Amino acid sequence: MVITSYYNITSRLKEAWLTFEQQDGVSPFMYYGYLKNVFNHRRLLSIFRGIVPVIKCVEDTNGAILAIAPLVYNIFSKKYRMLGDIRGCGKADFLYKCDLSWQECVTCCNLILNGLGEKFYLHRVPEESVLAACLKERNLSVEQKDSCDIKIADDYNMWFSNLSSSVRQNIRTAYNRMKRDQCDFNVIIMGNEKAFDSKLTPISRKIYRKCLDMYVNRQLTKYHNKGVRIKRIMRGLRYKYIKFDSTSLYSDSNAILVALQINGTLAAYMGAFSSYDGKSVVVPRLAIDERFKFYSPGYLMLCEVIKFLTENTDVESLDLSRGLEKYKMDLGAVPYKCFNFSRK
């Protein structure tokens, strides 16, 4: 077996990637469509930051690809990182040929790791992965990073009844407030052709643009409220037109859009991806319009999403990705572990 480095995604690499990602348990964060946009985003930034995306593959003597490691290389620090080690991506991992055994995957993984040199940072690695198992055998610095997901019950009322009494009351209060104030609210759920086997209307560009505008305004207000105006404008343009997930959440075949409207105005937005096996949904983006905070639009949107998933899909997990924020725990999310491994 040999290691081959790809600085462009060839048709042969793409074909192997699209096959490998079909396996159960592969996160949508590892899908070709998603990481292709990260790859292009990183390559654009390489001009300014010296960070070069590179895909390392293990190939057999016949040239068949057995494993794929999406990475980036910093030409200044001479360190490798995961391609998916970027804000918005919940997990980063290697992919393997479908018919390989666990031990064969371990062999491929170690071949790649042995070629990464003296220093590397491999972050966002799922606990149950082959990569995590191999890295734990090495003398590395390890930092645990918690993520969480909501386990979808067979029945919405069953899920709701398992929430704490105070959370249930807060959710009822939010619905009652809208009813009392005669607010007209509706939830729009859209998805592209591979989201739940095309059971949804394709994502509307017009609605997505409204959601993106709200998300960008929320980011700029919450995290970049100070500073030079021109920098805020440039950052807003980058979020809208350059950032990789702004592309993926509209154009990827498994992309999902959820919008909650109150009196015809967008109040909350969720951008997500479904897995190909229809068992999980991962959520890299959530945002609300602060003007509607009194009605708890984020909680109500997630409740309506869970109700839709229980009634219309076979989804078992709504993955809220990195962090254990209060609203996630309130809605019954269960923590799971990812790890940051480094050799400095």
Question: Could you walk me through the main structural features you see in this protein, from its secondary elements to its overall organization?
Answer:
This protein is of the alpha+beta class and 344 residues long. The chain has 2 domains: 2-145, Aminopeptidase; 153-315, 3-Layer(aba) Sandwich (Aminopeptidase). It is built from 11 helices and 13 strands. The protein has helices at 11-20, 32-49, 102-114, 130-136, 156-161, 165-180, 205-223, 229-241, 244-251, 297-312, 326-330, and strands at 2-6, 51-59, 65-74, 79-82, 95-96, 120-126, 141-151, 185-191, 255-262, 265-274, 280-288, 317-322, 334-343. A hairpin with a 5-residue loop joins strand 10 (265-274) and strand 11 (280-288). The chain is globular. The relative contact order is 0.16.
Brief descriptors of the model:
single chain; about 350 residues; Aminopeptidase; 2 domains; 13-stranded mixed β-sheet; 13 strands
Write the layout of secondary structure elements.
Elements: E1 2-6, H1 11-20, H2 32-49, E2 51-59, E3 65-74, E4 79-82, E5 95-96, H3 102-114, E6 120-126, H4 130-136, E7 141-151, H5 156-161, H6 165-180, E8 185-191, H7 205-223, H8 229-241, H9 244-251, E9 255-262, E10 265-274, E11 280-288, H10 297-312, E12 317-322, H11 326-330, E13 334-343
Helix pairs in contact: 2-9, 3-4, 7-8
